[in-house]
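FAQ: What does a multi-protein file look like?

Like this. Sequence, then tokens, then the next protein.
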Amino acid sequence: MILLELFYVFFTIGLFTFGGGYAMIPLLQQEITARGWVDEATVIDFIAVSESTPGPFAINMATFVGNKMAGIPGCICAVAGMVVPSFVIILIVARFFQGFADNPYVTNVFRYLRPVVLGLISYAALNIITKTVIVYENGAANINIWAVAITAVIFLISRKLKNIHPIVLIMISAVMGVVLYGFVV
């Protein structure tokens, strides 16, 4: 039963998310936490690891959640659920796009989807920031200074070295995280 539920949930997320992996974070977070599959902290961890590992973000997230819930069969069902809607939609759009690419209605739909996608990505970014930078202890909100430090260093490096590859930034932040959280904190 969990395999069908994994397929269904990720199929739904894949079907109703426009704008790529980051735009799906709010829906993904809501669906998997509401079902009790993972808690909020684990979602943030999955997001961090999904972004840091090779491959599409959405597929990585589906893989991690599927594995946590049902091992390898869970991975297969979750990834299949995530991929099938996109695959079918791309096939349909590729087949008929030339016929309606210049249609003003289609053009307007794409134009008005852009701000929605931007809003979803912004929401996901703010949600991740509030979950990683603001730590609640004993009913009080505290700033996680180490998370702020890592963010600031990566931001400064990316601003100073404009052509630095994102993988290098990910590796630097991973090393900083291991050192700070593994040995200092």
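And here is the next protein:
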Amino acid sequence: MIILDLFLTFLKIGAFTFGGGYAMLPLIQEEVARHGWLTQAQLVDFVAVSESTPGPFAINIATFVGVRTGGLFGAFCSTFGVVLPSFVIILIVAKFYEKFSNSRVVKGIMSGLKPAVVGLITAAFLSILKTVFCIENASGVSLHDISDGEIWLLLAIFIASAVFAFKKVHPIILILASAAIGIAAGYLLNMFGIYSGFDQLLS
């Protein structure tokens, strides 16, 4: 039953992933692909939507996957499943952490989790990069045809992000500005009939 599968799958993801939403992404990718709920390209789109909407990343993507595969009740079950382990664990930790916070064992566990979390986030980043820029076929893996316009756009976004981070621009301003730019870009792309590449707009 799809509803039970959604709950148990996201319960497992929530219980066995440390480090927040991005660290969950490799396990989400594996489970979603194993069940055949979404393609990698669809999952990347869901990641983009999850990052563009308010709320924690893990909850957002669990909700999107749930509603896509099991409707409204599927969204509830997948979201409840991914939240439940963290809720229970944090209640236990909050009760006992202060008592054991100076323990060498606890400090060792925390020190060991930090590089593991960084590794999981890096793996998620590389997996998304591969999905966006690479094509897998019978002859192996090859790069998508990336236009000059897309390259310039990527560079512009990277430079703008670095400048905004250095200037410590308020995140709300960045979110609103990004939304406005995205809406304007989508309108222009539809108006010009362009659905891939930005050469006609940037030439």
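Q: Is there any per-entry metadata?
A: Some entries carry free-text notes. For the entry above: Strands lie at 134-137, 140-143.
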